């Protein structure tokens, strides 16, 4: 039913969407929920009215329908003309509705409870003050839940959830919050946080890129992301602990700068914030950083390191692995027993420039089987293409010549081809092989392998950081907002990781995901009676189990009658 004599100004809010029909009529829909299905963003919308023919001082207005009053919990007009299909116009009279004042508090209380347990709230208050710390925790909780409804829904979240802030945070206030977060205050926080979470733990480091729509900002530059796509982006380097898998520190820099080129600058910033004040750190990094200058800088900052040694790092590494595989039963071969396979390993002293390291070479039977199958499929595919092709372009000729001797005439027409037997045999021998550099002599090859494989925590953190929290886009319009938004997303990542660490045993038993657990916690609501808050209903079995696991101070008493 449409209230045709009521006109409401159309708010300047992206959640209010105009949909024009073929007959020329324009309807107003409100975006109530956003989510992703197979990586694609989907929206749930509610029809709340129709655009009127009259504007108020140049501002568009619309006639609301009953969905508008029901969704926003606004009393219906006492006397109003109602237009409905097939119904006569009639007067509607209603009594003033009593405000329910129901607040969702289970999830946000869980976030505050876990922040208190790990002293995260104290560190934020010490760095930013109580009011701003509460705002950061509120927005970080919103981000950690996946920003339900999109970033423009922050006002709805802080209004409907118990967030302990002075007021509801609007989209405009959120932008102001980004700009209010200074680097000095963040560094004060990092000094306390690093001291808390880095003792007696190895640190892994990796870099990701986050795209941004605006290309006019100095920090945003065209560069290639991890999928080799050229996009305007900001690079973000992040440290994580290996054992607790907690984010430690992040640094953002221009999107066109190489990862290994910026490593010494990131190390210097992290060192200034106390990354090695208590104990020397062991840096765990992938093969992309296996560059002499970058590793020299890591050692100059007092870091031991475990780093991937790509077989194409230099010709000598490849030869070392091949020589070992030609004599697999040599005396220095070690067997590492895993639950599903037995990995062979050989260790040799190795120098990278002035750095003395150990080169650890491994061969995994499971990886061998997988790599050999991929190689066989690849060779068969190229052979078939060479048989069916009449001529080759320069790029394909260069690519296929790595594995095949190809004879062509002056017109680049294929005369004959045959596989390079020696080269193919070497590649086959290297299937399932990988190598690591390590500067710590107190670690066994098995311990080094376990630590290196555990570094995927930073890759998983980046996946959550980019996909679940930032939706793959930074979406800021000012240079000052970049660091502030990344900092809040970083706090959100800490909260989400803490929740996951604490709930992981329960999630495995109950076979639900973290997002499902967050949704169940968010469904715990309370109602205000006078000066006290009481639950609106008893908790479900899973809600009680989640509350008990997280040790949230919630009473299980039912709502009071009367």
TrEMBL record:
One Pfam family from the UniProt entry?
A: DDE_Tnp_1
A Gene Ontology biological process noted in the UniProt record is: DNA transposition
Question: How far does the signal peptide extend, from start to end residue?
Answer: none
Q: Where is the Transposase IS4-like domain?
A: 201-494
Q: Which domain of life is it from?
A: Bacteria
Q: Which InterPro entries match?
A: Transposase_11
Q: Which GO terms describe its molecular function?
A: DNA binding; transposase activity
Under the heading PANTHER family, the entry gives:
PTHR34614, TRANSPOSASE IS4-LIKE DOMAIN-CONTAINING PROTEIN (PTHR34614:SF2)
This chain belongs to which protein, by name? Transposase
Query: What lineage does the source organism belong to?
Result: Bacteria, Pseudomonadati, Pseudomonadota, Gammaproteobacteria, Aeromonadales
């Amino acid at each position: 039913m449409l209230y045709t004599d009521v006109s409401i100004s159309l708010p300047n809010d992206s959640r209010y969407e105009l949909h024009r029909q073929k007959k020329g009529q324009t309807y107003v829909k409100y975006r109530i929920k956003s989510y992703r299905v197979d990586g694609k963003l989907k929206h749930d919308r509610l029809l709340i009215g129709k655009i009127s023919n009259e504007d108020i001082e140049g501002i568009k207005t619309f006639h609301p329908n009953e969905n508008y009053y029901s969704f926003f919990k606004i009393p219906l007009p006492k006397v109003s003309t109602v237009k409905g299909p097939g119904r006569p116009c009639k007067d509607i009279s209603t009594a003033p509705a009593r405000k329910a004042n129901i607040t969702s508090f289970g999830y946000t209380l869980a976030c505050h409870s876990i922040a208190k347990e790990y002293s995260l709230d104290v560190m934020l208050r010490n760095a930013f003050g109580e009011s701003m710390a509460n705002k950061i925790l509120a927005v970080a909780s919103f981000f950690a839940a996946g920003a339900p409804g999109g970033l423009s829904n922050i006002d709805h979240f802080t209004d409907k959830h118990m967030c302990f802030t002075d007021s509801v945070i609007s989209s405009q206030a959120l932008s102001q919050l980004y700009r209010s977060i200074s680097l000095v205050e963040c560094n004060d926080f990092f000094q306390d946080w690093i001291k808390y979470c880095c003792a007696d733990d190895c640190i892994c480091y990796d870099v990701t890129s986050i795209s941004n729509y605006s290309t006019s900002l100095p920090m945003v530059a065209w560069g290639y992301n991890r999928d080799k796509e050229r996009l305007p982006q900001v690079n973000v380097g992040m440290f994580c602990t290996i054992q607790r898998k907690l984010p430690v520190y992040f640094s953002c820099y221009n999107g066109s700068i190489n990862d290994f080129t910026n490593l010494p600058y990131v190390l210097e910033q992290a060192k200034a914030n106390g990354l090695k004040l208590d104990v020397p750190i062991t840096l765990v990094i992938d093969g992309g950083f296996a560059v002499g200058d970058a590793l020299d800088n890591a050692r100059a900052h007092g870091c031991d390191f475990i780093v991937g040694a790509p077989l194409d790092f230099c010709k000598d590494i490849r030869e070392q692995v091949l020589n070992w595989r030609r004599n697999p039963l040599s005396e220095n071969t070690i067997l590492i027993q895993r639950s599903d396979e037995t990995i062979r390993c050989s260790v040799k002293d190795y120098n990278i420039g002035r750095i003395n390291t150990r080169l650890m070479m491994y061969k995994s039977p499971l990886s061998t089987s997988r790599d050999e199958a991929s190689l066989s499929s690849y060779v068969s595919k190229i052979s078939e293409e060479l048989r069916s092709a009449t001529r080759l372009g320069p790029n394909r000729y260069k690519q296929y010549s790595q594995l095949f001797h190809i004879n062509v005439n002056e017109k680049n027409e294929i005369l004959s081809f045959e596989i390079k037997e020696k080269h193919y045999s070497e590649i086959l021998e290297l299937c399932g092989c990988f190598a690591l550099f390590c500067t710590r002599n107190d670690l066994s090859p098995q311990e080094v392998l376990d630590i290196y494989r555990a570094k995927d925590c930073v890759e998983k953190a980046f996946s959550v950081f980019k996909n679940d929290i930032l939706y793959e886009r930074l979406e800021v319009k000012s240079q000052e907002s970049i660091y502030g938004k990344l900092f809040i997303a970083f706090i959100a990542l800490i909260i989400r990781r803490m929740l996951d660490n604490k709930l992981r045993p329960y999630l495995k038993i109950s076979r639900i995901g973290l997002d499902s657990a967050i949704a169940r916690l968010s469904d715990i609501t309370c109602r205000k009676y006078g000066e006290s808050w009481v639950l609106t209903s008893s908790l479900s079995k899973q809600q009680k189990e989640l509350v008990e696991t997280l040790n949230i101070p919630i009473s299980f008493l039912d709502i009071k009658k009367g």
